[in-house]
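Structure ticket #2291
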Amino acid sequence: MISDPSDADIDQIVASCNGDLRGALKALLLVNEHLEAELQQFYAAVAEDCASRGKFLH
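Resolution: structure written out below.
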């Protein structure tokens, strides 16, 4: 049987939280929030750069 490659990633994440599924989910949510904040900063920087060059994003 061929398993989904993400199954190994999930197992690794849960293992890194000592088998605590709630802890693993909490860690993933925190990482996701951090990445979303970085993405918003990136979008803001790109928009600012475009505006300074007289180009606008739609």
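Closing remark: The CA atoms of residues 2 and 41 lie 39 Å apart.
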